[in-house]
Amino acid sequence: MMEYENGKKRKVRNRLQLKAQFMSLRYLTICLCCFFVLLFFLSSDRISTLSVRSDSLRPSLRVPALSVLSSMDSIHRSFHGRFPPLRVEDRVQFPDHLLLILSNRIGKGEKSLVCVYHGVKEETLALPSISTDEFDEFRSIVRCPNAPSNYSSSVDLQFHGDLVKKKQKESKVHNWAKVGYEAVIDGDTVVVFVKGLTRRPHKESDPSYYKCQFKIGNSEEDEDVEVLVTQAVAAAQEVVRCVLPESLKLNPETFRVSVIHIDPRGRSTPALPSVARINGLDSIEKMNKKSGIKHELCVCTMLWNQAPFLREWIMYHSWLGVERWFIYDNNSDDDIQEEIDSLNSESYNVSRHVWPWIKTQEAGFSHCAVRAKDECNWVGFFDVDEFYYFPTHHSQGLPSKNALSSLVSNYTSWDLVGEIRTECHSYGPSGLTSVPSQGVTVGYTCRQANPERHKSIVRPELLTSSLLNEVHHFQLREGVGHMSLVESVAVVNHYKYQVWDTFKAKFYRRVATYVVDWQENQNQGSKDRAPGLGTEAIEPPDWKRRFCEVWDTGLKDLVLSNFADQVTGYLPWQRQQQE
Predict the structure, then answer these.
(1) Checking DSSP bridges between strand 550-551 and strand 446-447, what pairing results, if any?
(2) Does any domain span residue 569?
(3) H or E stretch at 80
(4) What is the pLDDT of residue 250?
(5) In terms of domains, do 247 and 337 share one?
(6) How confident is the model at residue 283 (pLDDT cuts 50, 70, 90)?
(7) Domain shared by 397 and 437, yes or no
(8) Number of domains observed in the structure of the chain
(9) Phi, psi of 271 (to 5 degrees)
(10) Residues 126, 110 share a domain
(11) What residue range is the signal peptide (predicted)?
(12) What is the mean pLDDT of the chain?
């Protein structure tokens, strides 16, 4: 009986202990939930924030009321690696924004970055960044608004919610009008792209007036670095080609390269500032990995906010035989990378090269010619609104598939032909007022009667060492000529004057170096402009009927007969409608 009573007491004590443990666990869970709810409210905009203001009522900087948030952010970044340290390597001042180059990679479209400006009276202002992007294999870029009045352009970066750090020293800001901005190794030479030396359009310069300066290391501001200088061997417009120092061939290192100008009296000016950095080892390894087999036909273009039109252009020209695509993205903000990723998932060979430099289309094409030389026999340089078409093939019932690659391959073994030129027909809005759902090739069918200008497909290895080009064609080596195709064989349909909502984007900025922006009251008679529009993006009442002299449905008929689904009638680039 005694043992029974003791056992009963033990059971009661065990139940009480279990209940106490359960209550403790319950209270702990409730406390943790309350803590995280508190953190959520503190990290949101639901609480008031402190303002750091100057005496002159400058715009205020919003910072968290409790520093615990910054600590939590820092701990999160340290443990999860999602937010690497922000190391601003260079700053470039453009007319309408500041470009910050980071020495490390951050994710494209990172939205938690703010640009921090420092005032003359030590006041601080934070503004959201305009955009972020990956720059190359090692670096990133961030675009910031221009500094307000009385604030320095030496902008810093931080993550939203971090406490503002006091600026330690004023960092150098490069003026876009005078800076070396890109460089690429080409065999035993390096090609440097630079603003501020010469603006002689469409002419080569005497290379004896230029030298290249190589600084070993990452930072331009480091004074205790090895400096090498070599002579230029070619120069034109914004391009200077110099001999690559022998030591960098034997021991590739990361270096910056700039250009020195020498006047006719032999006096050298200081090297221009430069953000042009090359990882020598990476560049050499890439060249060594090149296979001996080249694509027969590649295409290079420079664009801004053309993602909605990219799929039709690539799918159609791939059908004509284009195998490789180089997309130079000039500050797009329309999710073009997502479109490129989607195309690559469907086995289209497309690469995006971030090109943040405004009004440098000629330089960008020169840069692309160097990149493509080891991969491609022929490279076409034309825009996303330009489509090759073979009238004779269509009218005679000949197959047009791979017609473009077959055409250029006929001249691959001809060392005397370095360029194939094709005339362009400019199409108007064709009576439309909204973007055609089936694409430009089907929607726009009325054009001007006479062709204007031409587009080129070139042999990169037969270009001059200066890489001189006028966007539409390159200068070829001595003794090498071009082939001009007659209109009945091939023509480029240039959908230049589309519906107004699409066309008006041309008023924002022209990408070519030597083409005046349409907002400026200069060269209003230029063929680059739309006749009679002036300098303001105001839609003329008769816009939908303009530039219509000949109704031409040749390419439309070809596309519908070869691409349209036999059941639904949809074209393959009408993805959204099919979904």
Answers:
(1) antiparallel
(2) no
(3) helix 68-80
(4) 87
(5) no
(6) low
(7) yes
(8) 3
(9) -60, 140
(10) yes
(11) none
(12) 82
Burial tier of 527 (Cβ tally within 10 Å: 0-12, 13-18, 19+): exposed
Residue 157 sits in a domain whose CATH number is: 2.60.40
Amino acid 74 reads: S
Tokens representing 475 are 């200068």
Q: What is the mean pLDDT of residues 65-85?
A: 43
Q: Which of 93, 174, 95, 178 is nearest to 508 (CA)?
A: 95
In the structure, what pLDDT confidence band is assigned to residue 327 with cuts at 50, 70 and 90? very high
- State whether residue 399 is helix, strand or coil: coil
DSSP code, position 396: T
Q: Give the lowest-confidence range in 168-172, 319-323, 351-355, 415-419.
A: 168-172
What backbone phi and psi angles, to 5 degrees, belong to 452? -140, 140
> At 246, which helix (H) or strand (E)?
helix 246-250
Alpha carbon distance 364, 418 (integer Å): 20
Please report how many Cα atoms fall inside a 13 Å half-sphere around the Cα of residue 209, on the Cβ side. 11
What's the chain's Rg over C-alpha atoms? Answer: 30
Do residue 435 and residue 526 come from a single domain?
Answer: yes
Helix, strand or coil for residue 143?
strand
Neighbouring CB atoms inside 10 A of 359's CB total 19
The whole-angstrom separation of Cα 113 and Cα 100 is 12
Residue 331 domain flag:
yes
Nearest to 196 by CA among 299, 271, 115: 271
Q: Could you list the residue range(s) of the whole structural domain that residue 360 is in?
A: 295-563
